[in-house]
Amino acid sequence: xxxxxxxxxxxxxxxxxxxxxxxxxxxxxxxxxxxxxxxxxxxxxxxxxxxxxxxxxxxxxxxxxxxxxxxxxxxxxxxxxxxxxxxxxxxxxxxxxxxxxxxxxxxxxxxxxxxxxxxxxxxxxxxxxxxxxxxxxxxxxxxxxxxxxxxxxxxxxxxxxxxxxxxxxxxxxxxxxxxxxxxxxxxxxxxxxxxxxxxxxxxxxxxxxxxxxxxxxxxxxxxxxxxxxxxxxxxxxxxxxxxxxxxxxxxxxxxxxxxxxxxxxxxxxxxxxxxxxxxxxxxxxxxxxxxxxxxxxxxxxxxxxxxxxxxxxxxxxxxxxxxx
Length: 324
Fold this sequence. Notes:
The protein has 13 helices and 13 strands. By secondary structure, it is of the alpha/beta class. A 7-stranded mixed sheet has the order 2-1-3-4-5-12-13.
């Protein structure tokens, strides 16, 4: 099927056609296309959705996979995986997504998820894997240490998960009132100077929170904290994979299944009612998120691969980088 996308998507992701049989992605206005591809949830995606409706064409929602690459997308790293969703966005808690339905139906996928989880934890990898494994030097002042995860201002993963600036303020206030030592993880795009975070130094500093500005891996940070609090970051999912307590102040894809301490408001509870009604294990969610949902390809030759081969590629690229 010939597919169309907006100029922004065709220009920003010139490799995208490799995920769809090596075709050249056409304009959304081109005659003869059989469907429309929309990336993310910003203006270009809304434009694509409007055109698809006007032309009576199916639309697929695209995003990076949860196991993406060694480097950042902002730095030009091509993803090893993307997700293609015919229902919604995986970050959108206001409506069902294909991921949500896969998690709900993952009763028999725990063994697969366990194997994936063990490989991810053993190899200390996450969505992005460009940062070194090095313990942060922070004096422990209390027995309990909470990691607060900052996110990028304006990122749809916050608003679509039914979070807001107020969610971060509430999370910070609750943490500072808990008596625990509070560490704040800055988002990689913020550390790289590309974006701005919700938790500013001035706001957090008033309560004694410590910013982790060290450019170190997710695994290295999780090694030195006792629990993770987040609004909707995948960092919370990384913590769950490692068996850590996680509190959520919005509704990311892994919340609402009985694994997280959910600080949902009335509207969020109403939005999820009847959809995330089953209890799920971390292995069932891991199977859906890392294997059943995404498509993996090796950017070297664009052959389709599975999640285990993707993990091997990331580990090999990390080792090659360490030798340079």
